[in-house]
Specification:
Arc Repressor Mutant, subunit A; three-stranded antiparallel beta sheet; alpha+beta; 3 strands
Length: 109
């Protein structure tokens, strides 16, 4: 029962900012690139501009992403990067989830 309790506690302790599926996808994409344009992220995720902006604001508030606004000629350009803190949080999230899933699989066997 103790290992089951630890597994439950581990799942409950995951970072809820990252745990939301859209934000998890965004961070996963950003972790694989040096920088990504907003338009690219919008197309890849299938999220609307407003929805994506909302998720990015939460990730920015948590200091998991850096958002830079500039211009390409006269066209506004928003570029996104995962921060060191965001990369560390994503790695921690992955480890916690992997451990919890492995423990669950062992009990099911």
């Amino acid at each position: 029962m103790t290992s089951e309790r630890n597994n439950i506690d581990s799942l409950l302790a995951v970072d809820r900012v990252i745990h939301e599926p859209a934000r998890l996808v965004v961070l996963t994409i950003l972790a694989e690139a040096e920088a990504v344009e907003f338009k690219f992220l919008e197309q890849v995720t299938g999220l609307t501009k407003g929805n994506l902006s909302s998720h990015l604001a939460k990730l920015e508030d948590a200091q998991y992403v850096e958002i830079k606004k500039s211009f390409r000629g006269k066209i506004p350009l928003t570029t996104l990067k995962i921060t060191r803190r965001g990369r560390q949080a994503l790695e921690q999230y992955r480890k916690q989830f992997k451990t919890a899933l492995e423990q669950s699989a062992k009990r099911s066997s």
